[in-house]
Amino acid sequence: MTGGGIAAIIAAVALLVLVLFIGLVLINAARTLGEINKSLAVITRDVDLISHEAEDIMANGNDLLKDVNGKVATIDPLFQAIADLSESTSDLNNATRNLAGRVTSTSKSKNTGKVATAMNVGKGAVNLYKNRKNKKSE
Fold it and tell me: Which residues cross the membrane (predicted)?
């Protein structure tokens, strides 16, 4: 065998080793890609399930929000009535304070005797009415 023949055999063996190495790499790459495809299929199925669940949750949330809005609309007149009642109560308190101030200022003036006399006459009239009512019922 000549030097050229030995070089050709070495080149052939090197080429064979290279082809075997590339074949093993391609086989491993194919296995990896197969696993990736399986994983993607599982992930896709899980994402679909999650998206359907999210749609159901959002639909329930929308129904709940509509229900709450309806109830709030029902309660709004109640709060308005309470606000009106509060304002009326405040006006009544102011009027009572004004009346109390007038009565106090009137009682401090010269009419104190007149007011006391009027109250005594009123008490007497009430007692007289009660006595007559009691006599009629007996």
Answer: 6-30
- Euclidean distance between CA atoms 120 and 128, whole angstroms: 12
Residue pair 115/107 in contact by the 8 Å Cβ criterion = yes
Interior/surface letters 41-55, b for 16+ CB within 10 angstroms, e for the rest: eeeeeeeeeeeeeee
**What gap in Å lies between CA 128 and CA 69, rounded to an integer?**
62
- In the predicted model, what is the mean pLDDT of residues 85-90? 86
The predicted-structure confidence for 16-74, as pLDDT tens digits, reads as follows 999 999 999 999 999 999 999 999 999 999 999 999 999 999 999 999 999 999 998 88
The answer to whether the CB of 106 falls within 8 A of the CB of 115 is yes
